[in-house]
Amino acid sequence: MYLAQVDSPDTAYSQHRPASRGIAGLAEAVVDLSAVRENVRSFRKRVPQQLMAVVKADAFGHGAVPVARAAVEAGATWLGVARADEALQLRAAGLQVPILTWLYDATELMLLGDVDVDVSVSTVSELHRVVSTPNVHSVHLKLDTGLHRAGSAPDQWIELTRTAAHYEALGAVTVRGIWSHLSHGSSADAVQSRRQLQFLRAGVGLARRAGLRPGVVHLANSAGALTLDAPDTDLVRVGAGLYGIDELGIGLRPAMRLVSKLAQVRRIRAGEGVSYGHDFVAARDTTIGLVPIGYADGIPRVAGRRASVLCHGVRMPVIGRVAMDQFVVDAGELAVEPGAPVTIFGPGTSGEPTAADWAGWAGTIPHEIYCGIGNRVPRRYEEGLR
Ligand SMILES: *Cc1c(COP(=O)(O)O)cnc(C)c1O
């Protein structure tokens, strides 16, 4: 009964849907997996280490499973995620490469052990928790080398490594890795990164003296992988770079295009205000277009004053306040019609803004723009978009 009720309007809608370059709903995020593969290959060409594809936060909003598959196809040998549920999702989808997760609840340890997901350990009490589950976990001991976020405090490191060696000798745990995270990993200047590398080397030395033989030592993120010469590390953890966030300008390709279409078009007169509070008042008669995507979908409200989108090959400024579900653009005297495709951001190759442009307008970084694209925006996967 319920289904029948919601079915009929849906069907009616799809029958009368205007054909507008395949955008089925109000907006969609089109992800080009060939860009992800190409970006993985760019790193593999430049960096001798194995590549861990960091697909946390649903692959920065791009979709964890399709991105993980594409990255593995292109040569990533590890996957990294922040949280346990993200690791479980990848295993459930059939991904078999080693996975590391660095944030988890004690109650999730059993599940992680059952599907052979490695966990990060920063303290002796975390280690106790890991060995107190029935599974034998592979762990990566994390040393804080200067970020001062997660990781073992330096003065706890000897105790942590000795305790881990003790448990390993008993067969209760496997220390597969030793790692740390950079504090200035997005900067072109590697002075702090080199300091952290020295610190990590000392930590690995102490771990060896405690009897540990970690298979993988890792430190660098995307930009760190390119700036830090660290031949004695085994892995680089690449997140941003996979998606084409090109912090060092090596020619990475943005993988996501956020598109919509005009839901309504109308004329307003000079002197009329647009959207809440009438922050924008038309200086002349003009045509306005309604874009049916808003801050609930990740369009930064604060960017409204400066942003523009591409429609019919023309940049149209966003006018008035961005609302939860929609915003308005000024089409001027251009003849536009409802259904006209709108590109909110993309690779920037056809004149559209990029996620980096939106980040600039919103005073943030492209990472946050990508991660902010909400659940109401379906992801669609395409190959070879340019
Ligand atoms: C997010 C994250 C990465 C990836 O960093 P990028 O700068 O996006 O490449 C690597 N390691 C850890 C611990 C992270 O949290």
Automatic annotation (TrEMBL):
Binding-site residues for substrate, renumbered to this chain: R149, M324
Cofactor(s), names only, from the UniProt record: pyridoxal 5'-phosphate
EC number: 5.1.1.1
PTM annotation (N6-(pyridoxal phosphate)lysine): residues: K56
Active site (UniProt): K56 (proton acceptor), Y276 (proton acceptor)
InterPro entries hit by this protein: Ala_racemase, Ala_racemase/Decarboxylase_C, Ala_racemase_C, Ala_racemase_N, PLP-binding_barrel
Transmembrane segments: none
Annotated family: Belongs to the alanine racemase family.
NCBIfam families in UniProt: alr (TIGR00492)
Protein name: Alanine racemase
